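Please decode residue identities from the backbone states below.
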């Protein structure tokens, strides 16, 4: 294989992302770096010179899928360089190095050097070196946020802006603190600068995201004596005066319930662009299970928080994550979760069966739940989740809601409200712009609306 600067045509590079929104954001930043360096990005289903697999290690299933994707790339082009990055690469580089075809392993840092590392690996490959090159470092020693700009042009209306890295909660079921390291936050100035670039590039909605978003700024105070909170980061984005575009909406990704502040509520209430939607992972509606999970709240404090949130912002939508089948979850404890979920009236619930994650305390716990029982409990909670989502959607009928339209297919356009309800219409609406819609009826996974008169 020739090096890129020796070829008349650019190398082709293909990306595959597994896992969370943070991984998706990081893939987009890497795509931008390759495009800026003159590479051509192609779909992963096509034959490419370089494959970048951004892996997930939240569950063993995620790791299995990661290995399958790597092997698929090797079969697609046995001469290609395969680069594996992400959480699984950070956690198990030796395992990945043993997979046929892998030429470079990069963990959850140094993605800003991805082009340089790939080109070094290509030189090694051209020289006949078969051993996978590893450049993962000790993630637990990282103290600074890896500030990589998003260089790719917008392909949709919404952009994810990663402002925080790392987690120090150490929930008993989770491996992420060991793959992402300690808390690191983007500076306020960097948040403002990157957000302005995204808005000027044409993005209409920005979603602030991170591994532990609500902990934003703690490390800046700890290591640099800089006072910065998530409310400060959100305020910085909302204050931007854009030259070629205008921010229509700001949204937050997942937050821990204990990390909501009066300043944040003030922003949500006071700026119409701030989405009235919070995703607050509950994980279990049983105090016994929450304690076993090493979650730092109980159901009573969570319920008080939800009551306070709805008092501050009455029309807010609150979605959540719940894990079922955690070790020691009896039928009675699972029933507690069902009852609590109903009482909270969530707008949406993401249901996950507990998956044994080797290396975590929960993996060593007794009373692991059999897979058939977990499957049955998932179906039971999903039925309740669907019922609550329909109820929340039905509450929107008759209201006039602002919708940011994103896509159009077969004459039907769709987009999201600030409360994360998907609205469909056959009216003539402009993609990437807001429109006030009168909601008429339930439709598909959301509602149907018409332009308000």
């Amino acid at each position: 294989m020739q090096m890129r600067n020796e070829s008349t045509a650019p190398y082709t590079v293909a990306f595959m992302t597994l896992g969370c929104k943070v991984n998706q954001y990081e893939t987009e930043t890497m795509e931008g770096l390759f495009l800026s360096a003159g590479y051509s990005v192609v779909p992963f289903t096509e034959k490419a010179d370089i494959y970048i697999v951004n892996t997930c290690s939240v569950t063993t299933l995620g790791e299995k899928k990661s290995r399958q994707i790597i092997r698929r790339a090797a079969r697609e082009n046995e001469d290609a360089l395969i680069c594996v990055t992400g959480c699984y690469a950070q956690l198990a580089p030796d395992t990945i190095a043993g997979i046929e075809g892998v030429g470079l392993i990069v963990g959850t840092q140094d993605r800003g050097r991805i082009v340089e590392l790939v080109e070094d690996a290509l030189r090694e490959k051209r020289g006949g070196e078969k051993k996978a090159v590893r450049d993962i470092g000790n993630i637990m020693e990282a103290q600074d946020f890896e500030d990589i700009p998003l260089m790719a042009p917008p392909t949709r209306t919404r952009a994810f802006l990663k402002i925080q890295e790392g987690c120090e909660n150490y929930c008993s079921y989770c491996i992420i603190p060991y793959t992402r390291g300690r808390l690191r936050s983007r500076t306020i100035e960097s948040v403002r600068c990157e957000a302005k670039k995204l808005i000027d590039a044409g993005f209409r909605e920005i979603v602030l995201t991170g591994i532990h978003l609500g902990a934003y700024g703690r490390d800046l105070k700890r290591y640099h004596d800089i006072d910065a909170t998530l409310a400060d980061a959100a305020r910085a984005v909302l204050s931007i005066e854009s030259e070629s575009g205008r921010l229509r909406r700001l949204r937050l990704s997942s937050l821990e319930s204990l990390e909501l502040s009066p300043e944040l509520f003030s922003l949500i209430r006071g700026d119409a662009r701030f989405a009235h939607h919070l995703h607050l992972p509950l994980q279990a509606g049983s105090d016994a299970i929450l304690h076993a999970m090493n979650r730092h709240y109980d159901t009573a404090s969570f319920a008080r928080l939800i009551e306070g949130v709805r008092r501050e912002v009455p029309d807010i939508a609150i979605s959540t994550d719940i894990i079922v089948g955690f070790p020691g979850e009896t039928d009675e404890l699972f029933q507690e979760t069902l009852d609590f979920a109903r009482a909270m009236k969530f707008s949406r619930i993401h249901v996950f069966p507990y998956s044994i994650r080797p290396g975590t305390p929960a993996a060593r716990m007794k009373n692991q739940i059999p897979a058939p029982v977990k499957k049955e409990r998932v179906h039971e909670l999903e039925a309740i989740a669907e019922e609550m989502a329909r109820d929340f959607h039905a509450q929107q009928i008759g209201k006039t809601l602002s919708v940011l339209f994103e896509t159009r297919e077969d004459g039907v356009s769709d987009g999201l409200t600030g409360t994360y309800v998907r609205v469909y219409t056959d009216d003539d609406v402009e993609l990437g712009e807001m429109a006030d819609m009168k909601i008429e009826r339930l439709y598909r996974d959301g509602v149907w609306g018409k332009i308000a008169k």
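Observation: The mean pLDDT is 91.
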